[in-house]
């Protein structure tokens, strides 16, 4: 399938050509055509954070305040994190970028092959060549995904999901059953929303990725894969092969 991409911003200078700190590529005004919000909920650029590239939401550090104004319910967040994961891995595979999971995301895969139910974001790592390629060629690109891309419209997948559903045990309480039914209804609603609107993900690269020093604690995240509808994101860091 052809990768659907639109360029959000263009830069006259390559990120790899400059070692100096750069201003943020996309402040709130620059993403007004991409975000559904009218107000920015990001932490401000004060003196203490003047050299920090990524600014998280004021209400929760696991959201991008340009695209979110409040935290999501747990089951809704889990649903969107699954789509975030699939879209990122599929995109990196298509453009030939080697990436792998780390931190809590890695532990979840090791223990049960799933995202931890309490996870608020996901963590991935790249080698230096891959980060450089993302910075030079893919920074500030928007990637479109449809329900079909996620397998929602695949009748085989839908039948398999129905097949694994079993009747609840006799001792299941009415309250627990009602909760499960409520989650199932919300999940179906979320799937229908994706079928109607699709999803857009922004790939944003921190120009400070070329700084290999561990002293720069404000820029430990080298790139992010951001859900423009929810503000959830994947933190991407670079594995440097030698110390500075």
UniProtKB/TrEMBL annotation:
InterPro entries: FKTN/MNN4/W02B3.4-1 (IPR009644), LicD/FKTN/FKRP_NTP_transf (IPR007074). GO terms for cellular component: membrane. One of its GO terms (molecular function) is glycosyltransferase activity. It is a single-pass membrane protein. Transmembrane segments: none annotated. The keyword Glycosyltransferase applies. Residues 1-18 form the signal peptide. It is found in: Membrane. It comes from the Eukaryota. It holds the Pfam family LicD. Residues 96-145 form the LicD/FKTN/FKRP nucleotidyltransferase domain. GO terms for biological process: glycoprotein metabolic process. Keywords: Glycosyltransferase, Membrane, Signal, Transferase, Transmembrane, Transmembrane helix. This is Mannosyltransferase. It comes from Neocucurbitaria cava.
């Amino acid at each position: 399938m052809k990768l659907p991409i639109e360029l959000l911003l263009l830069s006259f200078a390559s990120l790899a050509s400059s070692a100096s700190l750069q201003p943020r590529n996309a402040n709130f005004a620059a993403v007004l055509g991409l975000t559904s919000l009218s107000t920015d909920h990001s932490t401000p650029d004060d003196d203490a954070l003047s050299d920090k590239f990524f600014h998280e939401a004021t209400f929760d550090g696991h959201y991008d305040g340009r695209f979110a104004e409040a935290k999501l319910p747990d089951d809704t967040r889990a649903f969107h994190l699954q789509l975030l994961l699939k879209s990122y891995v599929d995109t990196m595979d298509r453009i030939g970028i080697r990436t792998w999971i780390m931190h809590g995301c890695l532990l979840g895969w090791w223990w049960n092959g799933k995202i931890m139910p309490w996870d608020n974001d996901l963590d991935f790592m790249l080698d230096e060549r891959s980060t450089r390629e993302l910075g030079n060629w893919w920074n500030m690109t928007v990637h479109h995904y449809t329900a079909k891309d996620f397998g929602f419209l695949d009748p085989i997948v839908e039948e398999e999901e129905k097949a694994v559903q079993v009747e609840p045990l006799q001792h299941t309480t009415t309250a627990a059953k009602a909760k499960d039914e409520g989650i199932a209804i919300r999940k179906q609603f979320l799937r229908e929303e994706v079928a109607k609107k699709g999803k857009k993900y922004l790939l944003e690269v921190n120009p400070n990725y070329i700084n290999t020093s561990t002293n720069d604690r404000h820029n430990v995240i080298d790139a992010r894969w951001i859900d423009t509808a929810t503000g959830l994101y994947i933190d991407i860091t670079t594995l440097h092969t030698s110390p500075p």
